[in-house]
């Protein structure tokens, strides 16, 4: 695959729960020195990005420009980017990354100009070949780097509440209590030998309580027991990589507001009291309780309200655009906004007026990971709510992914959390490229005991494709990843704006006017060759130069966004096709052959240049190809002329060994040919034409996305000026070649003008 400047490619990798390792081998023609990577312009820097659960964006804060992908991958987080290298080979085990869908993105350039529409795409392009393989354990109960660790699943079922648990947990949470146990009653292991367990949380739960029971030694004489418990969400835990850890022999491990998904548990006996019997082992049983609140309740002691949001798909051609509304009475389904006050009337708090929450649960469907969650709050008074969002569970003050409290307290600025409005009466932000699955949105009430809550506040939660509709400075486009299963959206900004939401002004209004004037007015240089062609009555060339200048001006007027007389693609085709024809016709004009032959050459050239203009017209090689075709047409014209005018040149039919005479004949023929060429062209104008053509070639090579407007304007002026000089270089053939010789003998005869009579 070839990756041009500002282009990107995204590929998903689905890792099953029983995978053991992910291997990536990437070969490309990138030749970058990582030690000097900071000297490379960001707009042309090729990078590779990884993200868990949704497509990556290369403008994230944790983009590393110093570490290579191979060395930096050891600290891979939810999203990470690294500079591309010629060869990248890495292997990620299930101890480093979790199962699920991982997205790998290749980007040729980062920064605001990545989404800016460009008149041309100039810069380094790279080709690459990727080989991605996933190794999995043949037994679904085996894990580890080499599939050598058994994982015992904990089977869950409703159970009777024990007296000890009833004394610790709120009664409302025990109504839906689920107890999970292993199929094995007890496990007996030596010191330092871990046992692994898995626990699946399918719905939003308030907490997980993991306990070890029936702890004992298999021999007598030892009383000191320590069972270290390490727990990790989505991946195998260890001493160094875990989310929670505790000595489970002393007290249970309680995980508040656990994430939905698979949890892995590791229990390791440590610091056992040594006895003379080296076969001492610790035996224990493992179980977990998952208390859940009744439907419509959540939070500590199930005192907070929770609402399940229903999805309403928006009408239109954009996939997955929708808005969410609570499934309660009194809410209008015709609008994406819903009032908050009717939903908060039943909220209760016990002695903590600033710790009242209302939760909303929504689901991002499979395939919509490239969408953005848009949350808005508006009120006729000062907003008295804080907004917290968390993927896979309910948010809290301690556990959240993104949040907004006020103008000074919010999530760290990131491309995945974009705040657009933070006034007292309105809050407006996006969560970019939200992961597929369940999201929890929490509203924390402020000043619930005051009158500030009496203001009317409305809220809207929607899934949109492009943030802020590309700020009205671009077009929202969507595409599918390499698998064709997930659609992701992106903004294609206009010529003057950039950024992922087209909110960054790259070209000012004055700069836009200046660029438009340069690109459009510079085509007036076509008047020079058009005037000379009309003066010499070369009407075909006059039509070409005039049409080329007009079509180029109209095309660039449309290209810069000033005015489009016709469809953009039509104008682009006409501009390139007529430009190609004008350059080649200049060369053909210099050949003095019959008009019948010229028409034949023009017809063949018209077909060839039309194909060039219709297929990849903007490639740089077309300039060289057009000049070669024009020079070839001129050469063919010369050959035709020589074959018709120098037929008298012949050698003796008989075999002659007088090589001196043959050499003199050839020398005289070459001399006459050179004399004819010198007499046929004004070489001062021809030299000026070649200089102008060289300047045009130089300006073409100097064009970049940033300086295109200037150098392409110079290209217009120099290419038309070179055509003008070449036209002027052709001498008047009839006056120089058909005039009578000055020396020679001529006999004048008298002719009787009177009519003869028969």
From TrEMBL:
Coiled coil: none annotated. It is found in: Cell membrane. GO terms for cellular component: plasma membrane. Residues 491-502 form the EGF-like domain. InterPro entries: EGF (IPR000742), NGX6/PGAP6/MYMK (IPR021910). It is a multi-pass membrane protein. Keywords: Cell membrane, Membrane, Transmembrane, Transmembrane helix. It holds the Pfam family DUF3522. The chain crosses the membrane at residues 576-593, 622-640, 646-663, 683-702, 708-728. Belongs to the TMEM8 family. This is Transmembrane protein 8B isoform B. It comes from Glycine soja. The lineage of its organism: Eukaryota, Viridiplantae, Streptophyta, Embryophyta, Tracheophyta.
